[in-house]
Structures are given as structure tokens and as C-alpha cells.
Amino acid sequence: MPSEKPILFPAHTDQLMTTYKAIRGMVDILPAATPLWQSMETTALEVLASYGYEEIRLPVIESTGLFARSIGEVTDIVEKEMYSFNDRNDDSMTLRPEGTAGCVRAVVQHNLATTPQRLWYMGPMFRYERPQKGRQRQFHQIGVEAFGVATPDQDAELIALSRQLWRRLGVDDALTLEVNSIGSASDRARYREALVAYLSDRREALDIDSQRRLQTNPLRILDSKSPDTQEILDAAPALRDYLDSESREEFDQLLAYLEALDIPYRINPRLVRGLDYYNKSVFEWTTNALGAQGTVCGGGRYDSLVEIFGGKPMPAAGFAVGLERLILLMQALEITVSSPADLYVIAADEGTYRHTLPRMDALRRQFPDLNIVQHLGGGSFKSQFKRADKSGASWALVYGETEVTNNQVTLKPLRSEAAQRTIGDAELTAFLADFLAETQRA
Ligand code: ATP
Ligand code: MG
User: Fold this and answer.
1) How far are the Cα atoms of 36, 193, 227 from residue 205, in angstroms, in the given order?
2) Is pLDDT above 50 for 442?
3) Hey, which residues does 55 pair with through a beta bridge?
């Protein structure tokens, strides 16, 4: 052990026990919640594959400059939310606060953008924010990014894909689609002037953040959560009056596609999104079921980012789903998933237990979709049944001496009024096939 590192291993001579807690805003996802996470993730994978999107896996750490350059210097994320540090070589690194920048970096670096790409990724993101329900410092996103198509059929496909996911998860009724067009960079420059002129005359009445943004990033004022500022904005110039004909036409076309897809939407003229790289059509899916943290998904077009990162110009669009908020929504809607155990195996004693071992092994091979949980550690029937109940299993497979002698098993229902019965080993297979078919997982 090199002597210059003792600080990592302080000698707790006077205090043997130290308790640690997870860092504020970093959350453990416990076994009680993981079944819901896994089922959500599996569904998302299926939906993404069904639209031909491919997974890309990206580092969690990137150069700090990558985020400053793409997200924008004057955004909440870059100004105050990044986990940045200097590594041992004194290079500035940042735990990724979002995934688009890294994804575009990878697409350019590996020259993927020569043909259209449909990509997705999933993983943790890090932002130093005030933790509250639906807002953490480490949280998770699924990001979906499509490169190479400039027309609004691409935007429509992304929205359709997200709606498909909500449907499959059973949350679509609780989510509303908001859409807007923020035009081109030059549209926004012209609008910015008009907005600044209007707001400068009313500067004193704005909230502090908005006063500051008046100089730095005035469009973000539209997004202000202050009611006073929002009231002032009611009479402000409207962004849509500054859009060029291309942005307008493409937005209208997107709306027409949404109508063809039968996706209800609300045009929100103040939807600008918190990151600088967006242009043209942007959207968010919001819910009333989660209080203040009601945006579950947000995205839009970002046609200039590939070029900014040194690639050949290539249009792009994407969105990110906040997975904690999606899970909270599923929980609020009382969406549950099947228990981790289907069958709980109880054996009378050591010899009986040994009798069950090869049988359960074979059953797991024959029925890979069945969750067969074996009781371990012995104990009375009474105590084993208690555990069986807790496991959430539907049936207990009970092996006593009689069952072993006769090559039988007793089936005891744990959560239904079905009759208890003792059947031969051979009949067990048919019983389990029926059970699987009933639970619709066969
Ligand atoms: P908000 O306005 O709620 O801060 P945002 O505009 O910063 O959201 P995006 O950068 O668009 O969020 O990220 C996409 C999605 O990721 C959000 O809609 C949200 O569902 C989720 N998200 C963002 N920040 C957090 C966080 N700190 N904790 C949990 N989820 C988050
Ligand atoms: Mg934010």
C-alpha cells in the first residue's frame, strides 16, 4: 500500500463502526421496486426494436467542454447542475447530465452519420439539483436519437414511438402531448430582440432569474415558473409570429401526421425546452398525476449539433424519458407486475429436500418462464408456509414423506380458493403448462 494514500483508509482506532448512507439525491432502487423497473425496461426495449431503433452504449463521463458547447453555457444544467471534477491529469470531466451530447459525439467520432441512424440508450444521468419527488441527483433516462432525416415524418415517428410506449405501459391516458415550434436560429434571433425590448421595459417586475436571463438567455424566460413573470409574458410578442415559412410548414405537417396517428396534442407557445441545441419542432409529454415534476418526456429537433461537433452537417431529432417519473406515474396508476415467485417448494426434511433437487432443476429447464423458489434452511412446515405466503407465489409444491414414497407432490393454493390436491410427478408438467397459459406468459 503506497504510503501517500492513507486518507482512503483512516485508522478508526477509537470507533470501529461507521454507518454510511447514500449521497443526497442518489437513490437505491430496492428489490420491491425492481420488478416494475424491469418490466418497464423490457417493454421499452420491445417498442424500440419494433420501430427499428438500435442500442448504443456510451460512457457516463465525458469532457466538460462537450456539455458546455452543446447544452449551452447559459442553461440551468451548465451553470449550476453539473458534476464536474478534474481527473488526475487535471483534465475537466463531467458526469453526463443528459445523453444527447455524448451520443452525437459518438456518432461523429465513429462516422456513423453517413446513413440515417435510429439509436437509443438507457442509463444514469447526474444533475446537482434540489432533490424532491421526481427530481434526483442521479436519475435515469431512455434517450432516443434519430440522425439523417430533416422532414417532420421523423418527428412524428418519434412521438408515435413514445405514445406506443405509454400505451404498452398503460399510462397513455395520464399523459398529454405538448408541441411547439421554436424555428431556426435566425428566427429566434429576431424574436429574441423583440422579446428583450418588451421585457426590458418591465424588468423590475420579473423574477430574479429572469432578470439575469434578460442579458444571457432571454428565451428561457418563457419557461419561468414564476407566476408574476408568466403574467407579464401573456402580452409579450409571440414566437410563432417570427417563424420562417419552412419552420411553420414543417410544424403544420407534423400536426397533420399527429392527427393521422390520432394523437391528441396541445400547442404550447411557451414550450422552449431547457437546452440550447433544439430547433424547429419540440415536444413534451406531461402529466397532472405527479405534482410539480410533471414532465415525463421531452425532445425535439437539433439539426445543427452534428456540425457543431465537427461532423458533416446532418439533421437530427430525439427525446429523453425520465424513468423515475415514469415509474412514479405507473405507481400512481397502481400498475403492478407479477410476483418474483410463482411456485414455492417446501420439503419436510433433508431427505425430502434432496428428492426435490433434480426435479426442480428439470422443471426450471422445461419452464424457463416459471419462477420456482425453493425453501432453504429447513424448518417446520408451519414456518415454511409462512415464507411461502410472503414470497407472493401462487402455489406451494409440498413434498412430505408420503409424496416422496409415491412419486407425488401436493399442490397447495396460496392466493386462491382452488382445491388442494396431490398428483403424480408426471401430472405436474401438465399442471404447470396450464398454470403458465393462465398467467399468459407461455
Ligand atoms: P425539468 O424542467 O423537470 O427540470 P428538464 O427540462 O431539465 O426537466 P430534460 O433535460 O428535458 O429535463 O430531461 C428529460 C426528462 O428527464 C425530463 O422530462 C424528466 O422526466 C427527466 N429529468 C430531468 N431532470 C431530472 C431529475 N433531476 N430527476 C429525475 N428526472 C429528471
Ligand atoms: Mg431541469
Assistant:
1) 46, 19, 11
2) no
3) 120
Task: Supply the pLDDT for residue 237.
Answer: 94
Amino acid identity of residue 345, one-letter, is V
> pLDDT for 246-279, tens place per residue?
999 999 999 999 999 999 999 999 998 877 788 9
Say which ligand is closest to the CA of 272.
1
- Tell me, what's the pLDDT at 274? 72
Reference 147, options 202, 184, 108; nearest CA is 108
Check if 276 has its Cβ closer than 6 Å to any atom of ligand 1.
Answer: no
DSSP H helical segments within 54-184, as ranges?
Answer: 64-71, 76, 100-109, 152-169
Distance 274 CA to ligand 2 centre (A): 7
Q: Is residue 39 lining ligand 1, measured as CB closer than 6 Å? A: no
Task: Say whether pLDDT at 5 is over 70.
Answer: no
Phi (first) and psi of residue 340, to 5 degrees = -65, -20
Cα gap 373→371, rounded to integer Å: 6
CB 96 less than 6 A from any atom of ligand 1: no
Ligand 1 nearest-atom number relative to CA 296:
20
CATH class of 343-441: alpha beta
pLDDT for 10 equals 55
Where in the chain are all domains bearing CATH 3.40.50.800?
343-441
pTM of the full structure: 0.88
Give the mean model confidence (pLDDT) for residues 117-129: 98
> pLDDT at residue 304 above 50?
yes
What CATH fold (topology level) applies to the domain 21-184+244-332? BirA Bifunctional Protein; domain 2 (3.30.930)
Could you tell me if the CB of 138 is within 6 A of ligand 1? no
43 burial via Cβ count (<10 Å: 0-12, 13-18, 19+): middle
Q: How far is CA 253 from the centre of its chain?
A: 29
Ligand 1 contact via 220 beta carbon (within 6 Å): no
Q: Which ligand has its closest atom nearest to the C-alpha of 141?
A: 1
Q: How confident is the model over 382-401, as pLDDT tens digits? A: 999 999 999 999 999 999 99
Encoded amino acid at 98, one letter: E
Q: Tell me which ligand sits closest to the C-alpha of residue 139.
A: 1
- Listed in order, the ranges of the chain carrying CATH 3.30.930.10 are 21-184+244-332
